[in-house]
Automatic annotation (TrEMBL):
The keyword Transmembrane helix applies. Pfam families: A24_N_bact (PF06750). The lineage of its organism: Bacteria, Bacillati, Bacillota, Bacilli, Lactobacillales. InterPro entries: Prepilin_pept_A24_N (IPR010627), Prepilin_peptidase/N-MTase (IPR050882). The keyword Aminoacyl-tRNA synthetase does not apply. Keywords: Membrane, Transmembrane, Transmembrane helix. It comes from the Bacteria. This is Prepilin peptidase. The chain crosses the membrane at residues 68-88, 94-116, 137-158, 170-199, 211-228. Residues 5-84 form the Prepilin peptidase A24 N-terminal domain.
Length: 229
């Protein structure tokens, strides 16, 4: 429970990073504000999970809805942090926490701005790659070969299927995934994205041609299921 609470606190901070870094706003020293009225939040308005429930997901001053993304992230990262800390070895703990944290951060930037933010992507994944090499994680070359074959097909025939940012993200993940894990990850990510896409298109008035979904959260979901569970 202590690990979960700590993770929830970190999860709130990850949301701030993902929201502010792409727009070059300070996130370390700047106080948290309402995204609508810009009022500085009191400490009791920033208690993970609890504050959102007590405030009924609305700002105390302007009464605009608080993005539910923060609430969901606090719940998710509490679980991720506790899950990572309870891994059987220090190596597994460090790599799990680093990999899932990077995946969550990039999922958030994709949700907020439909981008993979380079200022978050490159530092986190260079650290992840360095850790995998330091701990002598096995490299699966057959997965790398399959990845480049998939990239070739997408670039030649299915340019709209995946963004180049998604392919670049997979480039850093693929060497550490078995061939079966890579295949299952792509199946889970694609099928879950398709299901969400169809559901949203049925319940929204937005034209289906203009409907855009962030794909990194689905890749991250696939990663967690096939590699860490």
């Amino acid at each position: 429970m202590i690990y979960y609470i700590l993770g929830s606190c970190f999860g709130s901070f990850l949301c701030v990073i993902a929201e502010r870094v792409p727009t070059d706003r300070p996130f370390v020293v700047a106080r948290s504000q309402c995204t609508n009225c810009k009022r500085t939040l009191n400490f009791w308005e920033m208690i993970p999970i609890i504050s959102s429930l007590l405030l009924k997901f609305r700002c105390r001053t302007c009464h605009k809805k608080i993005p539910i993304t923060y609430f969901i992230t606090e719940i998710l990262y509490g679980f991720i942090f506790a899950f990572s800390i309870n891994q059987p070895s220090t190596k597994d703990c460090v790599i799990t926490l680093c990999w899932l944290t990077a995946a969550l951060l990039l999922s958030l930037t994709d949700v907020f701005y439909l981008i993979i933010e380079p200022k978050i992507f490159y530092p986190t994944h260079l650290v992840l790659t360095s850790l995998c090499l330091f701990f002598k994680m096995p490299i699966y070359w057959e997965s790398v070969i399959l990845y480049f074959l998939i990239c070739s097909v997408i670039i030649l025939f299915l340019k709209e299927a995946m963004g180049m940012g998604d392919l670049l993200l997979l480039l850093f993940w693929v060497p550490w995934l078995t061939l079966i894990e890579l295949t299952q990850l792509l199946i889970i990510a694609s099928s879950s994205a398709l299901i969400v896409y169809l559901v949203i298109s049925l319940i929204t008035t937005k034209q289906i041609k203009t409907l855009q979904l962030p794909f990194v959260p689905f890749l991250s979901l696939g990663l967690f299921i096939v590699h860490f569970l």
